[in-house]
């Protein structure tokens, strides 16, 4: 899987290959609560179009961490990194 080369994109979206044939896209704007921007929208379009054309990738996950006021469970979940290579702030 190391030969996969995603299109150029901003640092607002992280690209991770957690397992063979799996692509994980993670929003990376924690200070803005991962609010979508035009840059993110363009990045996601480019990355998802690339995913559709890439025969080595079979599955895509989109990871968006949101914080809800008063959500203690969400806070506890946010402190754990579920996928190698991703850190939640």
Note the topology.
Blueprint lengths: L12 E7 L2 E6 L10 H16 L5 E5 L8 H7 L11
Parallel strand pairs: 2-3
Antiparallel strand pairs: 1-2
Overview of the structural elements:
The protein has 89 residues and is an alpha+beta fold. It has a single domain (13-78), classed as GMP Synthetase, Chain A, domain 3. Helices cover 26% and strands 20% of the residues. The chain is built from two helices and three strands. The protein has helices at 38-53, 72-78, and strands spanning 13-19, 22-27, 59-63. A three-stranded mixed β-sheet has the order 1-2-3, with helices on one face. The radius of gyration is 14 Å and the shape is globular.
User: Using only CA atoms, what is the Rg?
Assistant: 14 Å
**CATH topology heading:** GMP Synthetase, Chain A, domain 3
Number of helices: 2
Uncertain parts: 81-85
Percent in helix:
25-40%
Provide the succession of SSEs: EEHEH
CATH class reads: Alpha Beta
C-alpha end-to-end distance: 27 Å
Strand content: 15-25%
Biggest beta sheet attributes = 3 strands, mixed
What's the pLDDT, averaged over the residues?
Answer: 80
CATH architecture: 2-Layer Sandwich
Cross-sheet strand order for the largest sheet: 1-2-3
Helix and strand composition category: alpha+beta
Give the CA-based shape.
globular
Q: In the residues, how many domains can be counted? A: 1
* Number of strand segments: 3
């Amino acid at each position: 899987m190391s030969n996969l080369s995603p299109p150029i994109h901003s640092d607002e979206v992280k690209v991770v290959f957690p397992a063979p044939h799996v692509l994980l896209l993670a929003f990376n704007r924690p200070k803005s609560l991962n609010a979508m921007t035009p840059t993110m929208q363009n990045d996601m379009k480019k990355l998802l179009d690339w995913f559709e054309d890439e025969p080595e990738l079979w599955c895509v996950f989109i990871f968006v961490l949101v914080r809800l006021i008063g959500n203690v469970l969400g806070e506890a979940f946010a402190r754990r990194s579920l996928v190698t290579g991703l850190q939640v702030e």
